[in-house]
Amino acid sequence: MNEAAPSPFAEQALPPWRRAVLKIGSSLLAADGGGLSPRFALGLAQFVSANLLAGREVVIVSSGAVAAGRAILPRAAEAGAAIAARQALAALGQAQLIALWQRFFERPVAQVLLTHDDLRNRRRYLNARATLNELLALGALPVVNENDTVSVDELKLGDNDNLAAIVAALVDADALFIATDIDGLYTADPRRDPQARPINEVTELTAEVLAMAGGSGSAAGTGGMHTKLQAAAKAGAAGIDTCLFNGRSGEVVRALAQGRLRGTRLHAGRSRIAARKYWLRHAPLEPGAIVVDGGAARALREKGASLLPGGIAAVQGEFRRGDMIEVRDGGGCIAHGISQYSAVDVRRIAGSHSRTIEATLGYNYGENVIHRDDLVLLS
Questions:
Q1: Predicted TM-score of the model (pTM)
Q2: CATH of the domain spanning 283-377
Q3: Which positions bind ATP (predicted)?
Q4: Binding-site residue set for substrate
């Protein structure tokens, strides 16, 4: 990795974290002349490995499929319209991208392809979250990329920065690390303004801070500093700090593995738990509701329990899996939560034991109708 020009950013301690998302852009993976290079990927993989050995969990969001595909068929882009050609290149390069990451790790690497539509649709969102959490529980390393072979608007945006922020919220990460090809956020573009000064910390993403961001810094990448600040805003709304750093600097990446950041830390506005509970409390509700018995109501209030089918007394209205609904007892609404099952399904399993769900429905989304992480109590 590059050892020239030490970082102008002051060293600071990383925020404590148990689970993080690491976003790596094309500019760190693209080889000169096309294809993928392990030059900078190796150091980032060592950072991931060090944290996995320490008992932490990491999800990688990696660009680079289009660059890899271009090396396989360099003339493919001339064959058709720009979007279709790039989609074809992404399809060709995706296997190469996963192979690059697998070579660095003894544990299995899992490919997860998402579009923004997958994450806007609540049912698909829940399915994606369940898959990623299961992969982490199994000890696999998820490598997420946008599904460029089918996306259109998202591909034109090259928006893996924002995708990484959404994935960070999806898996309840504590931190979002964005590896870029410059040292961090400056007061202006340092490649054009010699007076640009490094910004070590941002406590609030104001319009003034956003105005400091420039465009894309390389031919391989399509996301500039502005999309990184947008991603930090999304992550911050979920209570997740974002750290920007130079993924080309071996010194910076080695320090990161030791818990020290030489880059820009963008602070979340509130804690992760507080942000999620705020969202659960204020998100729009569907008209349906689940009515629970006294025992279930006490378990929710006093023990912070999940809602199991055995404590359900009735179902009101209609709702779908993934909808935000009310939870009621005899006195009225006591909580808001995201239902793992539709109203039709909840009616069929109400009052029964969790172990009978699959026998009753023919499928199983888990033993909880509403998981405690998807539920907020109302005082």
A1: 0.80
A2: 2.30.130.10
A3: 23, 180-181, 222-228
A4: 63, 148, 160
